[in-house]
Write a structure and sequence with these properties.
Elements lengths: L8 H16 L2 E6 L4 H14 L3 E4 L1 H7 L2 H9 L4 E8 L3 H10 L4 E5 L4 H14 L2 E5 L6 H11 L3 E5 L2 H5 L5 H10 L4 E4 L7 H6 L4 E4 L1 H4 L4 H37 L2 H13 L3 E5 L2 H15 L4 E3 L13 E5 L6 H12 L3 E6 L5 H5 L2 E4 L12 H6 L11 H21 L4 H5 L7
Helix pairs in contact: 2-12, 5-6, 7-9, 12-18, 14-18
GO biological process, one term: formaldehyde assimilation via ribulose monophosphate cycle
Catalytic activity: D-ribulose 5-phosphate + formaldehyde = D-arabino-hex-3-ulose 6-phosphate
Pfam families: OMPdecase, SIS
């Protein structure tokens, strides 16, 4: 019986989400370099309970049991990625197809193989929806070869110090650092890794950390696996804290850079308006809705564009348009209509000279992220972006706008001498 490859819209969406998450997190791959399939499955069960993400059917196990080992592993662990460590040197298309048809999710090819072997393997991998990991073991110039492989389209590169090399005192650390800096695709690392050395490879930027003997030979494979995953979470927490501190630092910069004339112009326009309409797309829209709710608590006649009960925009009304780029078509269209109707527009954007900015009567500039050097922190590298990673997809603008608008609410509370008790009287009571 063969493991069938499902192809449907839902599978594609789920797979896309899995791939996105893989690029954001570190992956623990357990190398089952054993020769007994029952023993391998027993250890894999313990490792899976401990939190291992990928299970590798090692080369010795495949040589002993054949592709049956891959198939049995996939049947037993359908929720885990199964890596077939074939170390293919020739006939890349044939061997990748064999592994894929037996349930492999990732197949390893040797980096010393001919380019055609690797390209043929990639072509078949695309057909079956599997990934190709190229092992640099035996490659003399690893950085040069890694760059070549990236151009070919391989999915992962493995910096690997073999058992015989380890016996000579060699380590993958030096090569790992160079390769991580040279390519943008995820880099795996293998070669005698354990609880003592894993923190270093995390620091050097490895995405996939392959552990063999430290788990398979451990007295308690499940507990050892769990301790390794705990090391990963130490890095995750550091990343979260760094992101939070960076966001706060950015908001501090925005607060210091606010221009009095812009803020005053916005507040004057709000106080002088008959009705206030707020419009933003996506996350900016959520920020706008939060602001509208607070304005309602302060007795403003306020509406959110797009809601079914939103009335017509008329002369003397105000549109507060929120768009980081200032080019969101629907927002620009709304601003044009507001102007034609004889109303005013306040634009909250990162770009004063954008289309929206030029249409507006008042522009409040809220800087978002800006291009800088290639990022050096872990998650930034994994997102493969040329922006300094603080928060994804323009979130800095939205976070900063949210805090700025809360500041406007504080000002209006003081201006109209409203207390929280006053505002709570208008808070929703049917929720």
């Amino acid at each position: 019986m063969r493991v069938k490859v499902k192809k449907c819209a839902i599978d594609v969406k789920v797979k896309a989400l899995e791939e996105y998450w893989e690029e954001l997190k570190m992956i623990l791959q357990v190398a089952l370099d054993l020769t007994d399939i029952e023993q391998a499955i027993s250890i894999a069960e313990k490792a899976a309970r401990g939190g291992a993400h990928w299970l590798e059917v090692g080369t010795p196990l495949i040589k002993k049991e054949g592709m049956r080992a891959v198939e049995l592993m996939k049947r037993r662990f359908p929720d885990r990625k199964i890596v077939a460590d074939l170390k293919t040197m020739d006939t890349g298309a044939l061997e990748v197809e064999m592994a894929a048809r037996h349930g492999a999710d990732v197949v390893s090819i040797l980096g010393v193989a001919d380019d055609k072997t690797i390209k043929d393997a990639l072509a078949v991998a695309r057909k079956y929806g599997v990934k190709v990991m190229v092992d640099l073991i035996g490659v003399k110039d690893k950085v040069k070869r890694a760059k070549e492989l990236e151009k070919m389209g391989v999915h992962y590169i493995l910096v690997h110090t073999g058992i015989d090399e380890q016996a000579q005192g060699k380590s993958p650390l030096e090569d790992l650092e160079k390769v991580v800096k040279a390519v943008k695709i995820p880099v795996a690392v293998a070669g005698g890794l354990n609880l003592e050395t894993i923190p270093k490879v995390i620091e050097l930027g490895a995405t996939i950390i392959i552990v063999g003997g430290a788990i398979t030979k451990a007295g308690d494979p499940e507990e050892t696996t769990r301790r390794i995953i705990d090391l990963f979470w130490g890095e995750y927490m550091q990343t979260i804290r760094k992101a939070m501190h960076d966001i706060i630092e950015h908001i501090d910069h925005v607060a210091d850079a606010l221009r009095l004339e812009e803020v005053r112009g916005m507040v004057d326009a709000m106080i002088g308006a008959n009705k206030i309409f707020i419009y933003g797309a996506g996350r900016s829209g959520l920020v706008g809705k939060a602001f509208a709710m607070r304005l309602m608590h302060l007795d403003f006649d306020v509406y959110v564009v797009g809601e079914t009960i939103t009335p017509a925009f008329e002369e003397g009304d105000l549109l507060i348009a929120i768009s980081g780029s200032g080019e969101t078509r629907t927002i620009v269209d709304a601003a044009e209509i507001a102007k034609r109707q004889g109303g005013k527009v306040v634009a909250i954007t990162s770009y004063k000279n954008s289309t929206l900015g030029k249409l507006a009567d008042v522009v409040v500039e809220i800087p978002g992220r800006a291009k800088t050097d290639v990022p050096t922190d872990y998650i930034a590298r994994q997102m493969l972006t040329q922006y300094k990673w603080i928060a994804p997809m323009g979130t800095l603008f939205e976070d900063s706008t949210m805090v700025f608008l809360d500041g406007i609410i504080a000002l209006l509370m003081a201006t109209f001498q409203k207390t929280e008790k006053d505002m709570k009287r208008k808070h929703a009571t049917l929720e």
